[in-house]
Amino acid sequence: MTEESSPASRTPLYEAFNASRYSRQNLIREIEASTGRRLAVYFANVEHPNSSIMLGDVAPLNDVLSDCESGCDLDLVLQSPGGDIDTAEKLVLMLRRKARQFRVVVIERAKSAATLVALAADEILMGPTSELGPIDPQVTISTAEGRPLNRPARSFLDGLEQIKQSVIEEGALNPAYYPLLSQLDPALLDYCQKAIGRSEQFAEKWLRRTMLKAEPKKASAIAKRLTDVDQYRSHGMVIDRDEARAMGLAVTFLEDGEDLWDKLWRLHLAYEVERYRQPSLSKIFETRRVSVPFT
Question: Contact, 126 vs 214, CB < 8 A?
């Protein structure tokens, strides 16, 4: 929804129903006044089953970008558990084509594919509550009961290597491995290998184009590190601002009590309250005058 009418043109009931949105958009304007940049918000309700980055995000993001004139300096507040890597890159292409200088603002979490989006920015703004995450791809399989189950792609490859090593050491295949081998078909193993390469390629390519354009070796090292399951044993492990900066990412720290961080934190809490008020809400895409909620 695009809103350009003045408060005087809104009926009292309409304004009452949309008071929380107007409050958030006023806060977005305050933040823009502080930074001199356009601000867009991609807020996902991380507890909602449809919170992941997906193809359906393209249209609302394009709507949001209509509020950013071509060549603007753009900040993207990004709250997301991750999702489809190919869609993440499409979103990056849209953002980079529109903005002259592009920053990702992580107030609470931007994990997995959302971390990849952050790696494509010129700079990442992070505060005391902010976290990125590993970018090792996850593969969904079905349990015996038919339930979907996510497992790291690397785990399938490592599991096969462990079985091979066991056969070498014991001289025969342990029957205990039969159920596992029944799930490791060649197509799945090939997919896992390519998915890992795709994630690493995404990270390295965009780091080389943006924040680490003068340091290609560092870009490569960071991409390998973020896909390394020995470095990050859990896909949900926290990479805070100190670790992100220490590994070489262009991270700017925001602190409690700092005006910009306090405004951003208030904005984040406004979205958090909204998702508790509306549990069916999966995402909100928003700017100072555009608001696109999804349930």
Answer: no
Q: Which helix (H) or strand (E) holds 227?
A: none
pLDDT in tens, 179-202: 666 666 777 777 778 888 899 999
pTM, to two decimals: 0.87
The Cα diameter of the chain in Å comes to: 82
Q: What is the CATH number of domain 7-133+238-294?
A: 3.90.226
For residue 221, count CB atoms less than 10 angstroms from its CB and return exposed for 0-12, middle for 13-18, buried for 19 or more.
middle
Q: What SS3 state is found at 102?
A: strand
Range list for CATH 3.90.226 in the chain? 7-133+238-294
Of the candidates 14, 13, 41, which has an alpha carbon nearest to the alpha carbon of residue 263? 41
Find tokens 């993001």 and name the residue.
61
**3-class DSSP state for residue 278?**
coil
115-169 per-position pLDDT tens digit: 999 999 999 999 999 999 999 887 776 666 767 767 777 666 666 666 667 667 7
- Report the alpha-carbon distance of residue 18 to residue 158 in Å, rounded: 52
